[in-house]
Amino acid sequence: MIQNNPTLIDAIRDRFAHVDSCPFQGERIFFENAGGALTLKSVADTSAFYAAIPDNPGRINPAGQETQNVINKAKDDLAVLMNASGGQFFAGESGTELLFRMIRTACLAAPKGAKVIGSSIEHPATRSAARRWSEIAGLDYVNVPHNDETGLVTPEDYTARMTPDVAVATILHASPVTGMGMDVAAISSAIRAVAPECLIIVDGIQHAAHGQLDLDVYNVDGYAISPYKVFSRHGYGIAWISDKLTTTPHDMLIDAPARGWEFGTRDTGSYATVSDVVSYFDWLGGEVSDETEPRKRIEAAGRAIHAYETHLTNAAINGTGNLPGLRDMAHVSILAGADNPAREGLVSIVVNGHASENVVEILNQQGIRTHTRKADHYSGNVLTPLGLSDCIRISFCHYNTEQEIARLLGAIKVLGLDG
């Protein structure tokens, strides 16, 4: 495991660029992983290499053929990482753009008068798409309220509002506001128990870096990730779609292959960096287990990451060394409760008597990078019901350390002394 293994933690941190310093700020601790994780050094090298290649993938020349092989390998690697025995992977502008495409396609293919179901915990990437395209397609939108106190929506919550005429469903895998993870497999099962042919689309953007991915278990039709939140770079998203969604009428060029969902020339570098990420998970799985089969190593890496990030969030909440945890600071309130087993590497707080923006700036001046979430179009669905205008999001990843959390706790503790 990662905890209590300083040699492994050092090896992990050594694989990431700017792990303890920012080229614009200098020394800093990075607790803004939910906004975008650190980038693997191998990803930066790979991006630079392919950015200089002028050839289009698939052309009948050595460069064209080899770049196409790189893309094909990346798709095979994704199938191992996400345990997909069918369907297909493709790249797009961003995870949000891909969610819009999948949801639009599903809604336009649904029978008139059918329903679309989603939950109030969802990021606007799915909520906005579902609301827009359900209206255009003449479908009724059904909202499943989440639990404000726990930050969760459950299979039972979906079941209570499911009817056989639901044709499209959306699920959020993990919240970028509270960090709470939903039970996608159980929610999917609850949906299919009532509407077995429903097209189910999942926003996996926040979850992907923090635990297992298992598409065969989820039994859904679409799943999107944003690789910049999974140790790669900005500028593209990755989607997986089932064979059923693949063959659903969708945007495509006239007379193009019926299974095609990609437009224009592919960026080989984006796909190649996906393989770098998969290689990293494979390496980590070999460090924390004796597994030899790639998928088993990736599963071991996911378990180790989840366990270590749980340790980090517990240290932040309960304290470390002689420092009190966030739960023991009278001036701090923790969103979704201090004891929430659904938490995935993220703690959002409010510091009484301090505007969240001011707290983030105070921490930033001390080299501790966090982020403000406001009750706007991104986070208002979570914050407004709690009576909050904003909060401070502190998001961890498995390359963070307990020593970094001690620095954070010391800085937040001081904020209570001027209250």
Automatic annotation (TrEMBL):
Keyword Lyase found = yes
Q: What is its EC number?
A: 4.4.1.-
What is the uppermost EC class here?
Answer: lyase
Coiled-coil spans in chain:
none
- Domain Aminotransferase class V: where? 29-247, 305-408
Give the molecular function GO annotations.
lyase activity
What name is this protein filed under?
Cysteine sulfinate desulfinase
What's the source species for this entry? Answer: Ruegeria denitrificans
Taxonomic classification = Bacteria, Pseudomonadati, Pseudomonadota, Alphaproteobacteria, Rhodobacterales
